[in-house]
Specification:
- The protein folds into three domains: 48 residues, no CATH class; 104 residues, no CATH class; 79 residues, no CATH class.
- Helices cover 44% and strands 10% of the residues.
- It is built from ten helices and seven strands.
- It has a three-stranded antiparallel β-sheet.
């Protein structure tokens, strides 16, 4: 990073003779133009585009954008319910794997206003988890559990839990794709949606060609291979993710090795 206290550099900045480059880890670096300096993405040797303004694909707001997307897709449900895969879920699509996980969320739950006076919160959480987990109601939808549950979560607590879940998915994305920070905005959103929805183990078990396409920055193939079966997500969500990868393709067109021409 240039020394911003240097008088020469300060003068160049004042004259706006400054450009930006995106480093392989996703950070932006202000560069004084030098003909001899070139940076390359480590994964495939593709030249990093220099821009007069910071590259929007590396902006930190993609996480906030994804949180809003998750809220729109998942919708807020204050009580435990069965999702389409009959998994116990609460808030904005937070999966509860077992009773222990439900109890770890105790500080986020409150008894419903109509609950029996003096009912123990811990017992109520255990009862709700067992009721929802063992339910055989056909075609489960969240409203079918509104009157059979005893505890609920505020929307604020659910939003905090969602932010934690997004953070975990983001950590997984960076582990699975070390160059994640350099990807275009749409690619980041698409990858994050898949890991948030599936979790890393299911993602790695079910997808083979998609990770190869992403690591090759082949966004056209990634758009096609991002499709999930309809019992995991609806087609509307599949289209959103596909379009994100096509946005990535528009931002970062397919790389052609000059040596192949």
């Amino acid at each position: 990073m240039p020394n911003m206290t240097d008088p020469v550099i300060r003068k160049l900045l004042a004259q706006q003779k400054i450009r930006w480059a995106v480093l392989p880890d996703g950070r932006q670096e202000a560069l004084i133009e030098r003909r001899t300096r070139r940076l390359f993405v480590q994964s495939n040797g593709k030249p990093i585009t220099r821009r007069k303004t910071p590259n929007p694909s590396s902006a930190k707001d993609f996480r906030a954008a994804f949180v809003e997307h998750a809220k729109d897709i998942e919708h807020f449900v204050p009580y435990m319910y069965q999702d389409v895969r009959r998994k116990v879920t609460v808030g904005f699509g937070h999966f509860i794997g077992d009773e222990g996980e439900a109890l770890r969320l105790q500080s986020r739950f409150l008894l419903k206003p109509g609950a029996t006076p003096g009912l123990d919160l811990t017992d109520a959480i255990k009862t709700d988890f067992a009721t929802v987990r063992d339910s055989l109601v056909p075609n489960p939808t969240h409203d079918k559990f509104a009157d059979v549950t005893l505890v609920e979560m505020s929307e604020i607590d659910a939003a905090m839990l969602l932010d934690e879940d997004v953070g975990n998915a983001l950590d997984d994305a960076r582990r699975v794709f070390p160059a994640f920070g350099t990807y275009p905005h749409g690619a980041k959103l698409g990858i994050l949606d898949m890991l948030f929805n599936l979790g890393r183990p299911r993602f790695e078990n079910q997808f083979r060609r998609f990770p190869v396409a992403v690591r090759s920055r082949d966004w056209r193939t990634a758009a096609r291979e991002s499709h999930r079966v309809t019992d995991q997500v609806g087609e509307a969500r599949n289209r959103i993710v596909r379009d994100w990868f096509l946005d990535a393709l528009a931002e970062e067109p397919e790389f052609v090795d000059p040596r192949a021409r």
